[in-house]
Write the structure tokens for this entry.
Amino acid sequence: MIEGLKEMPLFATVSSDKLENLICDNQIDKKYYMSGVTFYDQGDECETFDLILSGSLVTYSLAENGSQMMMFEFSRGHTLGANLLFGDTHTYPFSVYCQERAEIIHLTKDAVMTLLYNYDFTLNFVGIVSSNSQKLNQKIYMTMHRTLRENLLDFFQQQAHLQKTNYFRLPISKKQLADQMGVQRPSLFRELKRLKEDGVIEVENRYIHLKKTL
């Protein structure tokens, strides 16, 4: 476990003895989670700072109308709980699921407080908190201030850029795309139909041809 931790920038300058002491004191623990299991439910108390060694997690927020919005995806090197562990509100605002079998390191609040005496760990930890806050703010802005069409076109333009072609394959299913946009599938299909009727896109199963932007 120590070798896996030391490979990550967050723990690069933390001594192996310090990590071993925390592991022996049950302040740092490693667990495995199978694909499809619920990692955290919306409203669960955040009691640990979690680091993903392998696998992937996805977070969903449940709206009042019953729709789910996919908030974030996490994979190797990503973390959970940094901005909740020391905040006034310690509960998860979304549910977290295992998308692929995951290997997770859990650090207790006491372990994090001990490691914060290390200057480099502190700088990296603050960076993680800042990055998580920025991503959350961007998601809130996308949800509150932009139309579904604008968000879809942004997503399509991003995929066209990543795949270096205006004719690209969606990396996720349409259900997942609806979740990511925070709408029900019928709403997504209606907007895709409008975009097609307006000559903006062509849709062929999982493939999108981005013809123009509005």
